[in-house]
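Weekly modeling sync, notes
Attendees: AB, CL, MP (scribe)

Item 1: holo prediction request
CL wants a bound-state model with uridine-5'-diphosphate-xylopyranose before deciding which constructs to order. AB pointed out that an apo prediction alone won't tell us much about the pocket. Agreed to run with the ligand included and paste results into these notes for async review.

Input as submitted:
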Amino acid sequence: MKLTIIGTGYVGLVTGTCFAEIGHEVICVDNDASKVKLLQSGGIPIYEPGLQELVQKNVAAGRLSFTSSTSEAVEKSDVIFIAVPTPPQPDGSVDMSFIERVARDIAGAMTSYKIVVDKSTVPVKTGDKVAETIKRYCKAKVEFDVVSNPEFLREGFAVEDLMHPDRIVIGVRSPRPVSAMQAVYTPFNAPIIVTDINSAELIKHAANSFLALKISYINAISVLCEATGANVQEVAAGMGMDERIGRRFLNAGIGFGGSCFPKDLSAFIKIAQQIGYDFHLLKEVQRINADQMDRFTKKITDTLWVLKDKKIGVLGLAFKQNTDDVRSSPAIELCQRLLKEGATLRVHDPKAMEKAKSLLPNVTFVEDMNDVAEDCDALVVATEWDDFRKLDLEKSRKAMTHPIMFDGRNLFDPAEMERLGWMYKSVGR
Ligand code: UDX
């Protein structure tokens, strides 16, 4: 099929590339000309495992191309996916101006029947507004359908999640676009849910909020574990073996971040408020998340007493493993708090140091994780990179003034760390 993706952020670029990989002809559109140039030359603006090779392979095969011309792409395609940003606004709602702008551009370029698909994370009822806008701005007055098709990819695992989805959600306002949408997704060989457009839009916010709720739940449990001498990982394992609960997303730590969970929670609370429902539960999810960071910071100040002129090593800057993304990163938040207390920082991240530089101007960036602990009074683990499990603990221990580790992602084993001569504090253990 001939597909267009408008917007080449995480969702747009990965979706477009994987659509090409399964055989579709894909045009990716972006209004940032320098980004289009980079993509046309085989480069990609994000670190995402496996993506660069896939982009280059499909560009070479002639199935994937990049342009900044929406009208050119719309004319050549049967299905147009909208994957532009919906950034958060101070009141918690999301900025819909990019979506609205693209809907008008698509309308202006349509001269025959098209299917327009919302792939960005949008509030319920957005599909109706997109349809209204296209109807108003389409001079050619041709037929079209608007579909909701939310994306569930995780950063750091995006290609894997796209190529092996748990399910595909297709929300429609009429049966007409269903078979075309099924044809787009059949090669992925995953369950396809066809539902009404409002339910599809809600599935996205509901799913993300529930995952965030699960994390806040285990973080709340971690507080009880610390107070009773229990081990949160044991509790998570015991809970998680119940298929109704599941072990995934029960990793206690310093809290969730990233460009999705915090924004989607605020947006969902706002949507509920506009509909007259006070979503207490999700407000509590937010409160527990913020409290987790406070508790962890307090653990450090309680142990080190005064942070002024203390040197602290920090492992991890990205909001999670396998990405260079530092948006709403708990690790960055923690660094900023330690700096505010007067500490000096030596920091390392396998991929995110470049993007963190503008957020952490006055810290020392260390290339090798095994050199971070040099002369430090404490070491902090802030992001759950698997790499960190291979840290040379003995070298780090010897290089520090005192071997103290605060592990905000429970990467190490408390008994083993004690055996190796560390003072070791983690979360819920
Ligand atoms: C999330 C959803 O998982 C994905 O389905 C959706 O499409 C976009 O939002 P992402 O933000 O990329 O994906 O990352 P995710 O792996 O969900 O992690 C989010 C945050 O939660 C990270 O800060 C991570 O460190 C934290 N987390 C995750 C925990 O603290 N504990 C866990 O058990 C899992």
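Recorded for review: The mean pLDDT is 97.
Action items: CL to compare against the apo run; MP to circulate these notes.
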